[in-house]
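Priority: medium. Attachment 1 of 2:
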């Protein structure tokens, strides 16, 4: 942590003066890069990459070799915590994550063999340690978890659902069971995040992708309540915390009460609208629509300028997409985005 004071990314989080707006991209190490596809195929699939620290380290660094990004993010997945529940996680081509067990009843929960041995996730911690050596204090490293609510949706459904029928049924009929699942996942998440911090991450992030499924009352009760527990359970409170939820604009009234450092915004709301509502309470991350990267340079430049002007302040902004980058994006467009952002934001920030 000794060199983190010099990172542009962390200066922006602290709302300190910056020479340009920093950028990293959700899923920056992934399926849009041909070198990633080659390594994934050679390794025999996604899960084999995640569980091999040498390969996960190599994958993490791939986008940093191509682009002038301001942070690395550990190559992993929010669902690896299934290892702590003795649930086998597989990734099926064109289908996504699939679990060999689900938790939909009290009986299902009683059969779960939860372990307190966080070393079951040692492949993630070893990846972090390798990355810290490779990064050599030149770039910060983001570690992450899924929110208990979002992870629960997968464990209840057993896969990447489109309808969330089982989750919504539990919300309506089995609140006590749902809280038991969320408490269990929260305890694991706190241990997991603390071990990532101990292993060397500079920034922590919580992905609450499916917080968007919940109405205001449910969101407070089944998601934010557990986010607060995790925040309070972090052993090093100096580690900045990023929180990301889809449909951010609809949730902002509740989010304003969170004790976080950065709010990650999706692309459904203008960043300026969020900025007006939260002021300087925390930094903002986002929120370019990924589809802009399918357009030409003039459209990309126009979108960059719009985002910067809409945000309207000289610091406190980390540029990112509003969602993870998709496999259909040409890496050349990512370079175009990063290079133009550096040029435009450096002029914007010295006004």
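Attachment 2 of 2:
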């Amino acid at each position: 942590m000794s060199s983190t004071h010099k990172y542009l990314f962390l200066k922006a989080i602290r709302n300190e003066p910056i020479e340009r707006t920093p950028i990293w991209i959700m899923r920056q190490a992934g399926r849009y890069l041909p070198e990633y596809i080659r390594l994934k195929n050679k390794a025999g699939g996604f899960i084999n990459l995640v569980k091999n620290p040498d390969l996960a380290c190599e994958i993490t660094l791939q986008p940093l070799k191509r682009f002038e990004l301001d942070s690395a993010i550990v190559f992993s997945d929010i669902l690896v915590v299934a290892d702590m529940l003795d649930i086998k996680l597989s990734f099926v081509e064109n289908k996504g994550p699939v679990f060999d067990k689900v938790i939909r009843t009290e009986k299902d929960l009683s059969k779960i063999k939860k372990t307190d041995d966080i070393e079951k996730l040692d492949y993630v911690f070893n990846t972090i340690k390798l990355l810290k050596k490779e990064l050599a204090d030149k770039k910060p490293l983001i570690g992450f978890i899924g929110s208990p609510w979002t992870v629960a949706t997968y464990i209840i459904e057993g896969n990447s659902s489109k309808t969330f029928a089982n989750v919504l049924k539990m919300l309506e009929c089995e609140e006590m069971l749902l809280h038991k699942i969320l408490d269990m996942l929260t305890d694991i998440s706190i241990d997991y995040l603390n071990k990532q911090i101990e292993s060397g991450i500079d920034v922590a992030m919580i992905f609450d992708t499916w917080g968007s499924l919940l109405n205001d009352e449910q969101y407070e009760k089944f998601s934010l309540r557990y986010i607060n527990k995790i925040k309070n359970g972090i052993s090093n409170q100096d580690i900045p915390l990023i929180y990301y939820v889809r449909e951010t604009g609809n949730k902002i009234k509740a989010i304003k009460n969170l004790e976080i450092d950065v709010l990650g915004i999706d692309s459904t709301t203008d960043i300026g609208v969020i900025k007006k509502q939260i002021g300087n309470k925390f930094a903002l991350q986002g929120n370019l629509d990924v589809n802009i990267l399918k357009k030409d340079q003039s459209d990309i430049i126009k979108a960059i300028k719009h985002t910067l002007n809409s945000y309207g302040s000289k610091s406190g902004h980390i540029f990112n997409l509003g969602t993870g980058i998709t496999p259909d994006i040409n890496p050349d467009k990512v370079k175009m985005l990063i290079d133009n952002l550096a040029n435009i934001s450096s002029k914007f920030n010295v006004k």
